[in-house]
Amino acid sequence: MRKIYPLILCGGSGTRLWPISRTRSPKQFQKIGGKDSLTFFQSAIQRHRGEYFHDPVIVTNLRHRGTVVSQLREIQSGSRIICEPMGRNTGPAVLAASQTLFGRDPNAIILVIPADHVIEGEINETIIRQIDAAAAGRIITFGIEPRGPETGFGYISKGAELADFPGLHSVESFIEKPPLAKAKELVDGKSALWASGISMFSARTIIEEYQKLDPETAVAVKRSVMGASPFPEALYLEADAFSQTKAEPTEKAVFEKTDRIATVPLNVIWSDVGSWSAMFDVSKPDSNGNVLQGDVIVVDSKNTMVRSETRLVSIVGLSDIIVVDTTDAVLVTRRSTSQSVKDVVDNLKARGRPEAEHYAGAAPTMVPFSMPRGLEQIHQTDCFQLGTSQIPIGACIDLESGHGRQVIVVKGMVHAQGPTWQKTVREGGRIYSDPDGPIRITNCADIETELLFMTFDIPVESPKSLSMTSHG
Q1: CATH code, residues 4-271
Q2: Cα–Cα distance between 186 and 266 in angstroms, integer?
Q3: Beta carbons within 10 angstroms of residue 307's beta carbon
Q4: What is the pTM of this model?
Q5: How far apart are CA 253 and CA 323, in angstroms?
Q6: 210, 334, 368, 389: which is deepest, by most CB within 10 A?
């Protein structure tokens, strides 16, 4: 029996569900329905488990690796994790995963799944029926029957049914987020589907299409995979080659240009949950139409969503309102204006406010004292310095270039990226400074990492004696 490799893309940093979603703790890792529910990411994993599926392949950035491992452990799922050195949109991520799988399984069939959508209904029956088409070289993009004229979604205009694969249609065109008049025309014509972001193909097919349509990216990704650092916990793609890829989604790079594309509708309830209003729509309301999550008291209110993560929230006499309370921020908006939350995030970023990036307490905290950049001093002499620092999950610091400096991992695990090299270092391992450039040290464990820093034969008064820059 041919099995499918689910490929979960979760390297994004969306903020459309602020304040629960931040740049450094994005939507896909947040719980869908309150503290006892699964996260978006976990739901995507659970949706495609069973006899027809391999363990998932996860593509994420290094900062989120610890979170991915922790959430996989909670649902007892195996996985293969691929860490991108930087975000280059979905195309290079999909291609890197495809090349990695192809090296292990030349007949691999891949199902690309967004990590942050909500889907209800029997999705796998339709997917499994398309395995033969994918194995025969077709690229299948799955669509959703439109519920109405939406301007925030892309559309797939489907053509005739394919003779060799019943239920599968040719694709006439892709329409990206049309104006309202065009959206109405597409919906009224009953031949267009919403683009779900879900697709399936063989690893061989997508590699061949990239080689034909974007050979430069194909070569760069292959170099990045071949130069990657393989470890039991993850495959770390080589950064220099990966940075030379074209930052485009798979749809634009391949789907819109290939003659292998086909589409089929999914009979499911689907939402990309792109706003708090959409979150309300996919939640289960009570008899008054209210969606209540957390410690909430509601009096004389209806059609209102209240989500509290830290304390009691009470509302009186409200209708069609959304209230979201987190540890360090509160959002209050009308359901009809919830799309404008992105303007709040833009405002926070313009002001340099940390609430746009991370939760209070989630940023790296260095104990301040006289040494540069806040190392906690243990001992120092005229020619020796010793200090410790803790790095939260996913956070990173930079060790400046030079001689005579080293870092020992006391607890946890880090990934070190030097000017021309990279490696993963576990407890007891060491990292030596590089005279050719700074070293980025990232906590890639699922616990806070503790580091011991030592500097030899460098005067204490030197402003660069052990300088570090922290990154949350």
Answers
A1: 3.90.550.10
A2: 18
A3: 26
A4: 0.80
A5: 40
A6: 210
pLDDT tens track for 151-189 = 889 999 999 999 999 899 999 999 999 999 999 999 998
Torsion over CA: 85, 86, 91, 92 (sign):
negative
The amino acid at residue 47 is R
CATH fold of the domain at 372-471: Jelly Rolls (2.60.120)
Among 118, 119, 116, 142, smallest CA distance to 4 is for: 142
Is the confidence at residue 13, as pLDDT, over 80?
A: no
How far apart, in whole angstroms, are the C-alpha atoms of residue 247 and residue 101?
21
**pLDDT confidence tier of residue 341, bands split at 50, 70 and 90:** very high
- How many CB atoms neighbour CB 165 within 10 A? 18
- Which residues on neighbouring strands pair with residue 84, listed in sequence order? 61
Closest CA to 88 of 201, 194, 224, 262: 224
C-alpha 59/C-alpha 92 separation (Å) is 10
Q: Taking Cα atoms as reference points, which of 170, 168, 173 lies closest to residue 156?
A: 173
Tell me the C-alpha distance between 449 and 426, whole Å.
Answer: 10
Q: Rounded to whole angstroms, how far apart are CA atoms 451 and 318?
A: 51
pLDDT-based confidence at residue 90 (cuts at 50, 70, 90)? very high
Residue 325 and residue 435 in contact, taking contact as beta carbons nearer than 8 Å:
no
pLDDT, tens digit, for every residue of 237-261?
Answer: 998 899 999 999 999 999 999 999 9
**What is the C-alpha to C-alpha distance for residues 175 and 29, in angstroms, rounded to an integer?**
30
Kindly report which listed range (69-83, 157-171, 427-441) carries the lowest average pLDDT score: 427-441
Residue in 401, 413, 411, 421 with CA at minimum distance from that of residue 466: 401
- Name the region of 406 (left: φ>0; alpha: ψ -120 to 50; beta: rest): beta
Task: Provide the 10 A C-beta neighbour count for residue 103.
Answer: 12
Q: Are strands 422-426 and 413-417 parallel, antiparallel or unpaired?
A: antiparallel
Using alpha carbons, list the distances in angstroms from residue 281 to 320, 322, 392, 398.
12, 12, 35, 43
Residues contacting 376, CB < 8 A, separation 6+:
366, 367, 369, 387, 388, 389
For the chain, give every domain's residue range.
4-271, 284-356, 372-471
Check residues 424 and 264 and name the one with the higher pLDDT: 264
Of 37, 49, 35, 42, the C-alpha closest to 6 is 49
Please tell me the distance from the alpha carbon of residue 2 to that of residue 107, in angstroms, as a whole number.
9
Least confident of 126-130, 253-257, 369-373, 441-445: 369-373
Residue with tokens 């519920």: 147
